UniProtKB/TrEMBL annotation:
<dbReference type="Pfam" id="PF16267">
    <property type="entry name" value="DUF4920"/>
</dbReference>
<protein>
    <recommendedName>
        <fullName>DUF4920 domain-containing protein</fullName>
    </recommendedName>
</protein>
<dbReference type="InterPro" id="IPR032577">
    <property type="entry name" value="DUF4920"/>
</dbReference>
């Protein structure tokens, strides 16, 4: 009887942890903040970030952009729109917070560090899988790419 009770308790705890995290994420509405407390002041556009990174290897500050995708599994990353190029991936410092799926299409300010780096084929394929891409689309990723990567301490939805 003790084993059955223990099994039942562990099952409930495991279920709580697997589903509980997503429920705690606030809906993406203007003014909602995730992670570190930030404001929209002094944020630069994604286009200006790209120009900054042609002169420097890294940038630390605030960037504003439109969210085009979010990790479908649990919101562990999102992407920001770029003109004429693939979106910029934004991950969250120490996986300390996650994004809701309704953040797609919203304009946000992220504060953190951006840098140019080469992204491996394995990382690109993993991200494509998390975004819900088809296996055919994933299989087409065969080359690493140089891109901008952002690690955000905080995110603020502005519209």
């Amino acid at each position: 009887m003790k084993k059955v009770f223990l099994f039942l308790v562990l099952s409930i705890v495991a279920t709580r942890f697997s589903f509980g995290q997503q429920k705690d994420i606030l809906a993406a509405k203007p003014g909602v903040k995730y992670g570190k407390e930030i404001s929209a002041s002094n944020a630069i556009s994604v286009a200006k970030l790209e120009k900054e990174l042609t002169q420097k290897n890294a940038f630390h500050g605030k960037i504003t952009g439109k969210v085009v995708e979010v990790c479908k599994k649990k919101g562990c990353f999102m992407t920001l729109q770029r003109d004429g190029e693939e979106p910029i991936t934004v991950r969250f410092k120490d996986y300390g917070f996650f994004m809701p799926s309704d953040i797609v299409g919203k304009t946000v300010v992220v504060e953190g560090s951006a840098k140019k780096k080469e992204v491996s084929v394995a990382s690109l394929q993993h991200a494509a899988k998390d975004l819900g891409k088809s296996q055919a689309e994933i299989d087409q990723i065969t080359q690493p790419k140089k891109d901008i990567s952002i690690i955000a301490d905080g995110v603020l939805v502005i519209k």
